[in-house]
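Bug #77: duplicate submission created two jobs. Keeping one. Sequence:
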Amino acid sequence: MNEVRQREPRLVLPAHTKLAEGKPCMFRVPGVCNGRTDTTVWCHSNMGRHGKGVGLKSHDCFGAFGCSACHQWYDTTSKQAADYTRQQAEDAFWLGFERTLKFLWEYSYIVVHRRG
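Kept job's structure:
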């Protein structure tokens, strides 16, 4: 289904993306991951559905903790055919995203405040 989407203003959350520093890699791509927490950064989604476009990063809420090796692998594999397919890169992103989201909940970086 082709849907027409208007470009939304990019959601920028600097405190959120900074959380990745010193955290474990959540991509954990076999044969790629260096496992070094000192290289972990916030890896933005490369999917258009998350706001990614030519010259545009996705919204900051759509990302995962990734070591430098997994981050480079994800960005490269998402753009061109390499040893892995684009679908494998997308699958790795979703797994990393889910692990990151669970981590953020588990360690109370995400907390629900009840009103009333």
